Amino acid sequence: MSKETAKAAHAIDLSALNEYLSTACPEVGHATAADKFAGGQSNPTFKLTTDKGVFVLRRQPPGKLLKSAHAVDREFRVINALQGSDVPVPKAYHLCEDTNVIGSMFYIMAFVDGAIYWNSALPEIESTQTRTAMYDEMNRVLAALHSVDIEKAGLSDYGKPGSYFERQLSRWTKQYRASELEHIEEIESLITYLENNLPQDDGQVSLVHGDFRLDNMMFDMSDALHPHVVAVLDWELSTLGHPYADLAYQCMQLRLPSDIAHAAGLGGLDRAALGIPSEKAYIESYCKRRGIAGIENWTFYLAFSFFRLAAILQGVVKRAHDGNASSEKAMQLGAMVRPLAQIANQTIHQDA
């Protein structure tokens, strides 16, 4: 697919959008421009300029989609449910489930002014104290997310309670198989380990984000010593699940190589010199905030996180192969699937 063809595939028909919004959500106003944000592998996201201000439109990608993928309707629901909570989210305006309006389901939310950092080593930040504070703020938000009262938020039916990792392992194995383009022995070894080491369900159920990492946070950096998250973004994979899935997914970043393409990891860097907490310290802070003594079966949770990311990236590669991916760099991510499985297998053997 050429750049021009890809751009055309994601373009929004403003006249059709305005005709719809004039009655469905007039408070957004009349759109004059829809500019696609760079990056983002899953749901194309646009800066929507209207006569009433600036908003964000997030849509499903065009073309045939994997079952349950690109759930912008679920994103909208959870963002709406978290309004006014301790978890910062943009204001949600409208969900359009009619795919005839612009060619796919979409929703509109507020445009939040904040800084996004793509490299988890935070090279743009000069102060080690600021880096420490940013990681502690992410830790606070994660603990707040897992402390949300699901019933009060109206999310008691947002996912199936119990057996979370068993269901997730089944789901992502199926997603991986549906996207598989070649046999990767390291992935097969990882799947076997996960199937043979599933921990017993401990009954913990919380709202989980599903992709909780630095570049899905927007920071207000006006006070360098007290940076705070003003919006958590990209809720497509959120559900009711086990809180340790989010925690392990973020801690996985500590083990990823620093030169990896997808949100550069921290492996091999002097994290103490950078002011970035160790995995042990990060987990201890989280446990203290949640009032829990510690975490058992940590190796499994980490290994599962590696597999899940590998399955997600394999889906991106398959969409690029089929001509539906939203990023021109999608095919490059395919080279990461095997290394992710290799790191997971190393983690398993090291912690055995």
Walkthrough of the structure:
The structure is a single chain. This protein is α+β, with helices and mostly antiparallel strands and 352 residues long. Helices cover 40% and strands 12% of the residues. Helix 4 packs across helix 9, helix 5 packs parallel to helix 10 and helix 7 packs across helix 10. The longest helix has 25 residues. It is globular. The termini are far apart. The N terminus is likely disordered.
Characterize this entry briefly.
This protein has 352 residues and is α+β, with helices and mostly antiparallel strands.
Which whole number gives the mean pLDDT? 89
Q: What is the general shape?
A: globular
Q: How much beta, percentage-wise? A: 5-15%
The major pleated sheet works out as: 5 strands, antiparallel
Give the total of beta strands. 9
Straight-line N-to-C gap: 45 Å
Strand order of the largest sheet: 1-2-3-5-4
Q: What is the gyration radius calculated from CA atoms?
A: 20 Å
Q: From the helix content, strand content and strand pairing, which structural class follows?
A: alpha+beta
Provide a count of the helices. 11
Order of helices and strands: HHEEEHEEHHHEEEEHHHHH
